Amino acid sequence: MSYQSATGPIGAEGRYWDALQEGRLELPRCTGCGQWHWPAVWRCGACGGWDHEWVEQPIEGEVFTYTRTHHPFGGTEAFAKPFSTLVVTLKAVPIRLVGVLEGDETGLKIGAPVTGAIARTAFGDAQIPALRWSLA
Amino acid sequence: MSINLSGLTAAAGVGYRQYKRGTAPLPERGVLVRAIVEACEDAGFDPADVDGFVSYGDDKNEPVRLMPDLGTKAINWSAQVWGGGGGGIAGAFGIAASAILTGQARAVVVFRALVQGNSGRLSAAVMAHHLNDHMVASGILAPAQVCAMRAQRMFEYHGVPYELCEELVRASYYHGSRNPEAVAYGKAFDHDEYRASRIIAEPFHLFDCSRENDGAGAILLVSTEMARDLKKKPVKLLSVAQGTEAGYGDLLENDATELYPTAGFRAIRDRLYGTAGLTPADIDVVQLYENFSAQGIASLIDHGFCTYENVAEVVRYENLIAPSGKLPVNTSGGNLAHGFVHGFVTAVEAVRCLRGESPNPVPGARTCLLAGGPGAPTISSAIFGVD
Q1: What's the pLDDT tens digit per position in A18-69?
Q2: Buried (b) or exposed (e) across B55-86, using 16+ Cβ within 10 A?
Q3: Which residues face B287 on adjacent strands?
Q4: Nearest 5°: CA angle at A88, between A85 and A90?
Q5: Does B152 touch chain A (CB under 8 A)?
Q6: Residue A9: which pLDDT band, with cuts at 50, 70 and 90?
Q7: What pTM value is reported for the model?
Q8: Cβ proximity of A111 and A62 under 8 Å
Q9: Distance between CA A52 and CA A50 in Å, rounded?
Q10: Cα–Cα distance between B126 and B355 in angstroms, integer?
Q11: What backbone torsions phi and psi does residue B255 show, to the nearest 5 degrees?
């Protein structure tokens, strides 16, 4: 793992960050029982297995929930206010990922289909790899 | 071997100090000492004989440092509930009771202190407990935003009317306006001001959010037997439960779909009522920890007072105010309108209302549910009662 966290210790998801930095979304599946895990785990709590494979995924899904932030909370300087943060249920695997919405917000609602891209979020001196969603 | 703790311990004394944020006259530990001594005086108990201390929410006041001021002879028990938010507030009473009922301590103070100059902003401290690169990269830096996303799901997907937030806020302000200790004392709730208040994170306006105060609170817990020999009427701990369940918690918003918009109390509801042998219908008054208005409503649903379907029949201003409402909630004003020292005022008012000391009395109230911090990864609640 080469990714250096901007905020604190990383769990078992080092590979996620490395892949994202290289422009790919990869998520972990237990090689023992096939269970997808997010947050990433070292040990599969379902079958007890220790081995996971990281599988590249398309960045698309639908809105599970969202909030549009108006207050200038410290640390959100990268985003002009207001900005919308989306929790998105991926289409291909039963995992939700969070990211900021870009572009036209017309039609933003739970269930709306979105596609994503990989960008960077400035946070202090760090440039954190991040997902940006767009309404499909 | 196990025992049912119901009714075996009791709150014997209460102390609470509250100031506008940033204006406490003493540093944090000084304010805390005042509150603890006040709780002991309320009970008629020598502070030097307190031998146990319990807190929650990453409190920074290590009990050993309180000893010189309190004259403490010995600490026989000290512990804290895990978690950076208010989820542990009621669970702290469970830890205290466990120590007393196993003979490991005799007199335990449950406390929480927060003075901005010492511990910084609470919202920042809570977030520091949870922050990670996933959230920061998505512009999520505050508890309000996380709770807003869960609230949005409750409103938009599960059909809970957003307008109910105002009913709860208005009831809190009604009670607070009649409480000389409250930030809202003497202030009438204004519908237009509420609606026009600036948006923090949709769906929350400013008045949907608890705002921090400096202060400290302390409650002395002893065996019910000992409490009977002290000054005030014992307020018995009838039940307490803490915890969480699979599919809820610090999961990068990957909670189980049905649990995501809840406040987390489904995990403990049955244990909570079971220990006391009570049902929601037996609860006379609720002290509801509301970090945000929507989470307060989610908590009432979790605790079985209403459902997604009939929530509008229960969360009505007239139904929530004392003494006429069927379900008086936050009779001192709660976190929103009394003051917010990490929720401790809800525990204080749970004791006061059962003693008949509330600024908005509920005549004949015998049971009070203390619903702990909603939406925290680990949550807790308690039920108090009087004979």
Answers
A1: 999 999 999 999 999 999 999 999 999 999 999 999 999 999 999 999 999 9
A2: bbbbbebebeebeeebebeeebbbbbbebbbb
A3: B370
A4: 155
A5: yes
A6: confident
A7: 0.97
A8: yes
A9: 7
A10: 32
A11: -60, 155
Predicted confidence (pLDDT) per residue in B126-141, tens digit: 777 788 999 999 999 9
B383, B58, B348, B67: which is closest to B220 by C-alpha?
Answer: B348
* Token pair for A105: 């917000």
pLDDT recorded at residue A1 = 65
Q: How far is B139 from chain A (nearest CA, A)?
A: 5
C-alpha A13/C-alpha B153 separation (Å) is 27
Listing DSSP states for A111-133 in one string gives: T-EEEEEEEEEEETTEEEEEEEE
Looking at the DSSP assignment, which residues form a beta bridge with residue B237? B384
Provide the CATH topology of domain A58-136.
OB fold (Dihydrolipoamide Acetyltransferase, E2P) (2.40.50)
Length of chain A: 136
Sheet holding B235-243, edge to edge: B77-80, B52-55, B107-114, B213-223, B9-20, B235-243, B379-385, B367-371, B285-288
From CA A117, how far away is CA A131, in angstroms rounded? 6
- β-strands A96-101, B285-288: how paired? unpaired
Which superfamily, per CATH, for B9-121+209-385? Thiolase/Chalcone synthase (3.40.47.10)
CB contact under 8 A, A70 and B202: yes
H or E stretch covering B260: none
- Mutating which of B126, B133, B198 best tests the A interface, going by the most A Cβ atoms within 10 A? B133
What gap in Å lies between CA B163 and CA B161, rounded to an integer?
Answer: 5
Which ipTM score applies to this complex? 0.97
Using alpha carbons, select from A128, A23, A119, A39 the residue that is nearest to residue A75.
A128
Confirm if B219 and B39 have CB atoms less than 8 A apart.
yes
Residue B246 burial (C-beta neighbours within 10 Å; 0-12, 13-18, 19+): exposed
- Identify any residues that bridge with B109 across adjacent strands, giving them in sequence order: B53, B220
Q: What is the pLDDT of residue B85?
A: 87
Whether residue A74 and residue B253 make contact (CB cut-off 8 A), yes or no, is no
DSSP H or E segment with residue A28 = strand A26-30
Please tell me which of the candidates A7, A70, A99 has its beta carbon nearest to residue B133. A7
Residue in the block written with tokens 């997604």: B308
In this structure, chain B runs to a length of 387
CA distance B149 to chain A (A): 5
* Residue carrying the six token digits 């307020």: B235
Taking each helix axis from N to C terminus, what angle separates B143-156 and B122-130, rounded to the nearest 10 degrees? 80
Which distant-in-sequence residues (6+ apart) come within 8 Å of A128 by Cβ? A6, A120, A121, A122, B133, B136, B137
CA nearest to A78 within chain B: B139
**8 A C-beta contact, residue B376 and residue B147:** no
Compare CB distances from A70 to B124, B132, B201 and report the shortest one's residue.
B201
